[in-house]
Specification:
By secondary structure, the protein is of the alpha+beta class. The protein has ten helices and eight strands. Strands 1, 2, 3, 4, 5, 6, 7 and 8 form an eight-stranded mixed β-sheet that branches. α2 runs antiparallel to α3 and α8 packs antiparallel against α9. It is elongated, with a radius of gyration of 25 Å. About 13% of the residues have low confidence.
Length: 313
């Protein structure tokens, strides 16, 4: 049986600013974004030696044995998420608020309770979107060990705690890192925009996406339609335009597979490739269904991918 004991630890509390508004606007997109951002947050927490204790709704609680590493993790989280948000329209950006406190807590198995946790949650709720607020106990430990700036916010009142907690805002936004994250996010956003429109027009998604199709895919679609028109107007018995149309469909399908939350993305990508192989087989039909062999290989690869993902989870 789990034993209850007290310990001193660093509590990291985070949640999404305006989560209800984002869910009301687009539930499916918001849940997919939350999963991606939370996965990134968990990865960075673990890199800095932290442990995720609990996740619920849009919130997350973690603890760190090192106060300095907890603040470093929070800065890395906010920098990475800022870069990811840079590639999103303003109404779709998901910004987390983070609060960090060093305090004595009650440990019950894997969970922690007490005023130390409540203070971290209160600090988090007072943070600006994309910001970090720390208590004076954290500030005392990190102010001479880190090169970031701190802004004193004054005394923060906490429910059920008689004394106010002095709090500080951490200055985040490393320019070099933010530019790198923003460049990566912009690159990732291009196929995501096309995938959202593809899902809306073909019925792959249950909720219509509000993103517009990316310029590159719009141009490719127009070119494909133009080639079909030329093929029909200059008809000589061969529908050669099927090949550029097939190429466009494959690219759009792979973009959808790379962003979908309906099925495993690796399996979805393999499915698109399998469909392409079948299409080529029928378009070049010579009496033999040779596509069955690559389809078998793809099915085995998809099964192995699914099994490995279940094993990791």
């Amino acid at each position: 049986m789990a034993t209850t004991h007290r310990k001193l630890t660093t509590i990291f509390s985070a949640d999404v600013q305006g989560y209800s508004r984002l869910m009301e606007a687009d539930e499916e997109r918001t849940l997919a974004t939350l999963k991606q951002y939370r996965d990134a947050m968990v990865r960075l927490i673990e890199v800095h030696g932290g442990r995720v204790i609990n996740t619920w709704g849009d919130g997350l609680i973690a603890e760190f044995p090192s106060v300095v590493e907890s603040v470093r993790a929070a800065i890395d989280v906010q920098n990475e998420l800022a870069g990811r948000n840079a590639g999103q329209p303003s109404e779709a950006r998901m910004e987390f608020r983070i609060g960090i406190n060093l305090g004595d807590v009650i440990a019950d198995g894997e969970d922690i309770y007490g005023d130390g946790v409540n203070i971290a949650a209160r600090l988090q709720s007072s943070a600006a979107p994309g910001g970090i607020v720390i208590s004076n106990t954290v500030h005392d430990q990190v102010r001479n060990k880190m090169t970031v700036g701190f802004e004193f916010l004054g005394q923060l009142s906490v429910k059920n705690i008689s004394e106010a907690v002095p709090s500080y805002a951490v200055q985040v936004g490393d320019l070099k890192n933010a530019r790198a994250y923003a460049a990566r996010a912009e690159e990732e956003a291009r196929p995501q925009a096309a995938a959202a429109e593809w899902g809306r027009t073909t019925g792959w998604t249950q909720v219509a996406s509000k993103k517009t199709v990316s310029r590159s895919f719009s141009v490719m679609g127009l070119v494909a339609l133009g080639l079909v028109a030329i093929n029909l107007f200059t008809w000589q018995g061969t529908f050669w335009a099927v090949w550029p149309v097939l190429a466009y469909c494959v690219l759009a399908g792979l973009s959808w597979a790379g962003t979908t939350s309906l099925v495993d993305r690796k399996v979805a990508s393999l499915g698109v490739i399998g469909a392409m192989i079948v299409a080529i087989n029928f378009l070049t039909w010579s009496g033999t269904f040779w596509a069955k062999w690559p389809l078998l290989a793809i099915a085995i690869a998809a099964g192995l991918s699914r099994a490995m993902s279940r094993k990791r989870s």
